[in-house]
TrEMBL record:
It comes from the Eukaryota. Keywords: Chaperone. Belongs to the POMP/UMP1 family. This is POMP protein. It comes from Nyctibius bracteatus (Rufous potoo). One of its GO terms (biological process) is proteasome assembly. GO terms for cellular component: cytoplasm; nucleus.
């Protein structure tokens, strides 16, 4: 064969063309989670966005109050502690209770829905640990 190695590389088909895409693509539960037809068909309730952002709004209100009472150093210190606590995480396939974050927010002495019936967004099915770690590290 008189063709060189460079022409062989030009003629090769990229691996991305072999991936399934289009209407017959398989749904990847590990990366995308479960599909919900209900969320695609029905519009969300007006209060749903407010409920999703409740903790953020609560934190902003608490920081503003703290700033007015103690000065700017207090909310800045608390925000640094929040960031430090959020950076500490468990392996992706293990559920974390975020106890340190609850203590900083003052929710450690409150009994809420999640304490009794668990968070509805948390699935009881644990994924495969090796696949989840490879996805988190970018190996997949």
């Amino acid at each position: 064969n008189s063709r060189g190695a460079s022409s062989l590389l030009k003629d090769s088909i990229p691996v991305t063309e072999f991936s399934a895409s289009g209407p017959f693509e398989g749904h990847d539960l590990l990366r995308r989670g479960f599909t919900s037809v209900k969320s695609e068909l029905l519009p969300s309730h007006p209060l749903e966005l407010s409920e999703k952002n409740f903790q953020l709004t609560q934190d902003k209100t608490n920081f503003a109050t703290l700033r007015n009472i103690q000065g700017i150093h207090a909310p800045l210190k608390l925000q640094m502690e929040f960031r430090a606590v959020k950076q500490v995480e468990r392996l992706p396939f293990l559920h974390s209770s975020n106890m340190a974050l609850d203590i900083l927010r003052g929710n450690d002495e409150c009994i809420s829905f999640e304490d009794i019936l668990n968070d509805p967004s948390q699935s009881e099915v644990m994924g495969e640990p090796h696949m989840m770690m490879e996805y988190k590290l970018g190996l997949l």
